[in-house]
Amino acid sequence: MADQEKNLNPPKDQPDQEQFLLEPGNENGQIFDMEGQQQTQKDVDLNRLNEDQKNKNQEDPKLMRRDLIKKKKKNEQKERLISAQRLKRLLKRKPIDKIRLAYQAYFFIVSIVVLTLSILSFRDQTVYQVDYDQFINNVKSYVVDDIKFTYTNKDCQTQFGSEYSSFYQYNWPGSMIGCDCSKGFNFSTLTEYNIDAFFSESFMLGRICSQDLLSKNCTTVNEQQPKIFNSWNDGSFGRPFVLCARRRIGIDLQSNSSNCQLQNKTTCGTGDNIFCVPQDISCPITEIGFTSNSNYQNLKSKNNINTGDIFDLGAGFYFYFIKNTSNLPLVEFQVSEGDKICRRNQDQNISPNRIDYPLMLKGRKQCENTDSLFQMIHSIDEEQFYLSNNVIYLSEKLPYFNIDTKYNWSIHTKTYIPWASQCRGELFDNVLQEGATLHQVYTALRVQLGVTIAYFIVIGLIFNIVGTMTACNFAWSCMAASPESQYNYVFLLEIGFKILLQIAEIVVIIVSFAIINEKRKLIKQVNDNECVNDPVSNFLFTNLESDLTKFAWSYNLANLVIFAFTLILDLIIIKHSINQGHHHGAKKLHEKGEHQELDIGSRGELGNQQDIKSDFKIQAKTELQQIPL
């Protein structure tokens, strides 16, 4: 009783009753809230941790946002995984789309065929710009109306004036550096099958000898600079001489005698070879040669520079030239080993069964075909040729460089290419003009080949593999979130790229058609009218027409037909896709069974998402409870 009264009397240090009621109770280590509900010490700690976490999140909003982003990404990954698994289950029961599979096989074959046609169209060109340039350079060459000679080492311009230049120039290409470790090998035993291996192993082309190699009796072969040969002799150790030709411009090969008079020009030539020259120059030289007859063609007694001339080069060896014969003017002069000039004139001939020196910077080969319009006027052996040009020392400077008297070198001359009179005038001008732009054909073929290669890689390989896998019900995880649209995405993307590349190639082919057709008609007109009759020119125009018609034109036409057919096939496949509603090799989701499965999967995913969220909350609470005070 006393205790009860004691408890009824509040202690003096206690606050008043109203204040006491506002504070939470604390009795025997227990805490009460304002409503009298009891809390444990553990709950108090949890509340404190929550408040601390809340304050921490308020202090670091970036950390909170980062955590939210991580949680969101984790949930999205789980959702995609569930969608992909559901998609795989769905596709296992779907049949393979055989129509789409056949479509992919067809385009793989088409891409190979188109690529093959483009390669053949580009590869099978037998005539190139360099061949046409050779023709143009000939018909645009300067004529020669005077020739002089000199024994001195001065060049022609210094000796006779700026209008004169060397009668011919042979460009010796020079040799590369090497290290000779052959030790006196017998070069004559080499053949064309083992010479390259011998020089690669024994000469170490392109490098000097190291100290170690020098100690093994190897020697460095120094390079020799390119040289110009323009001297000649009589072939019997006679005094070398240089022929200097005066070249003129202004020759009109398209004219006849009446046109020359109307133009107030001098008429030269006879028959079909009539042409005009300006009045201030004489008719050009049409024949040259060497002779031992000092009174050849009675030139000395005529003593008329407008008719021709002859002069003594020493030891009874004479050079002569004659003007205004029935031949066309001489315009090209060339020196070569052997007695022929290659059909492609820039190629250097070599004697049969002879191997060119491997250290040369530019090798020579025996001509497979020759230019019969070139006529040989004189020949000397190889030793005389090198002696006359003062380079006989090369046999000492270059190991195994053989200067042999059994091989001959010869001078050749070539006239203008004969051009029929009925083809002169506008046709002749058009031939020259079209030849200057022939490179456009090869540029167009190269561009077309590049587009075709891109078409083969993108459509024939990449999209064909993707499309085939899609038609075989392969599940692309990147599109698992929308399985009903996967197949159409892949298909439409393939169709878009294919049509884009086909349009690009069609444009290139149409442009090529315009270029090729214009030149093809012109070249055909030249051949039909028999404008040229020399073998080289006939080869040029005949094969050029064949190239433009058979290869470029026909192959491009085949590609156009293929692309037109594939565009029609594209429309059929698109219509098939719309009507059938195929999705990744499966029917549309409006089918009842697929709707049920997808709906169940969707609900299952939603339930899984809710379970994931609940598990996440429980896991967070458990981790907080395990944190020690």
From TrEMBL:
Region (Disordered): 1-70
TM segment ranges: 101-122, 453-476, 488-516, 553-574
Signal peptide from the UniProt entry: none
Taxonomic superkingdom: Eukaryota
Record field: compositional bias (Basic and acidic residues): 42-67
The entry's keywords: Membrane, Transmembrane, Transmembrane helix
Protein name: Transmembrane protein
Organism of this sequence: Paramecium sonneborni
